[in-house]
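Q: Convert this sequence to structure tokens.
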Amino acid sequence: MKRLIIFTITILIVFNLVAMNKPKAMCVYIEMPDESAPPFASVSFSAYIYGRSSEILTDSSPGCGYIENISTPEAGTGDGICYLNIGSFETAWSSEEHLMWTIELNDSPYGIVNQQIQDETGASEYSYELDPYNLAATPLPVTLSSFMAVYNEGVPVLNWVTQSEISNSGWNIYRSETEECETILQINPELISGGGTTTETISYSFTDNFDVTPGITYWYSLESVDFGGHTDSFGPIMIQIPNDENQQPPEIPPVFGLHCNYPNPFNPDTVIEFTPETAGKIDIKILNIKGQIVKTILTENFAEEDIGKNQTCVWDGTNYQGKIAGSGIYFCRYKSTTRNQITKMVLIK
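A:
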């Protein structure tokens, strides 16, 4: 059985691996069924701090990489080690946050690890095994990018979007007439199916068919449930019901930043949609799974009048040399003066 193992890393090992003055190393050991390490060229990974999936480190980032056949008292002989310097993140992090690893073997999913940052060195103080085909043992991380309620044709409609999900069985929705939720009602008769484990963007919609009173404000909370029964909550958000049918509902606020590309998977072209949230330069690049730039799709300055208006650009599946890129997973990176986002896309032939 393949397995991933997380161990506490000594300062000596960290210095040898990362070769920096003040390393903040997080490591995952990989052992194959024959107790040998996977070859160097076959392992790749990406990682981000839970709740901030727009900034991703990969095995090609500074201070990050993979070494096969490392021998340590903790890991044993013949293990491979994925190591990552979380000091390479541009944004600050703190202990007790979680580092989310996605590890691939020969360009195929191998496993996902949720590893808690324990101290100023970045090392985790505990170890555990993770069966890559049974992810229910890990805590549920859901990256929620938007959650809103609108009043449409006499009923409240809830819409939410996730950027990634791990072991997400589904959703429950709760409604209250107060922000503190003293009296709360579950309004979904059965669990709304979730995305399981995915790094794809997923959009959800649910209609509240319970009676509502004109002029009353309602508060909605979202609950995610993993396959082990663990839950996580989001919200609350509010919506005010109009006093009469002729009253205009509140204007739906725009969802800023990078949206899903379509189609996805695609061949040969895909449309990339985004909404500027501020005036200034926006840069959109295509990256391969190692974090290397394949092509710059857009570098443009947007004016004040462009804020909140949907924009599009197209990737034709070629690299910066004009050659057709190979089939596989790519990332679209969106950077503005206030936002840094990444979405996943799949090119097929």
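The first strand starts at residue 3 and ends at 5.
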